[in-house]
Design goal:
Layout: H1 3-10, H2 12-24, E1 50-53, E2 68-71, E3 74-78, E4 84-88, E5 99-102, E6 105-108, E7 114-115, E8 132-138, E9 141-145
Antiparallel strand pairs: 1-9, 2-3, 3-4, 4-8, 5-6, 6-7, 8-9
């Protein structure tokens, strides 16, 4: 029995139920097929949804201009002007978590979308812009906020 014969034999209602449950696996917890961004939970006191201790070995990539790391679905980088910048790891062209920092811009390794430090698209694949975040430095603690 081939697929078409099988679906005919179980009826349209059962085929819909099977198809619907398979499609449901492609959504996030909110039921969005392609969520706009990754959910962030800010600290109720500081408002930061991510803090990075720059003195820790795990953040050594941020010691050099052009270096970056990805933590909690956020690309945090030190640009070529010695400033800290941050953006979502989720590309706006197609919702893939493939954004990195390269050549002083955000770059999607999935399909080559490019974005400047403010999140504006630099090519046709980046035309939907990218979500960026504010950064602030207090001693060795880098905070990322909306």
């Amino acid at each position: 029995m081939n697929r078409k014969e099988f679906l005919k034999s179980i009826g349209a209602g059962a085929a819909f139920a099977i198809t619907f449950s398979c499609l449901g696996g492609c959504t996030n917890d909110n039921g969005d097929m392609f969520p706009d961004d990754i959910a962030l939970n800010p600290d109720p006191v500081t408002g930061a949804f991510l803090t990075i201790d720059l003195s820790a070995a795990s953040s050594s990539a941020l010691k050099n201009n052009g270096g970056y790391l990805i933590k909690n679905n956020i690309v945090v980088a030190k640009d070529l002007s010695d400033n800290y910048v941050a953006a979502t790891v989720r590309c706006s062209h197609e919702p893939r978590d493939k954004i990195i920092f390269r050549n002083n811009e955000y770059y999607c390794t999935e399909h080559s979308a490019r974005f400047n430090l403010a999140g504006s698209g630099l090519n046709s694949k980046g035309s939907n812009n990218l979500t960026t975040y504010n950064t602030s430095l207090d001693g060795n603690i880098l905070s990322i906020t909306a």
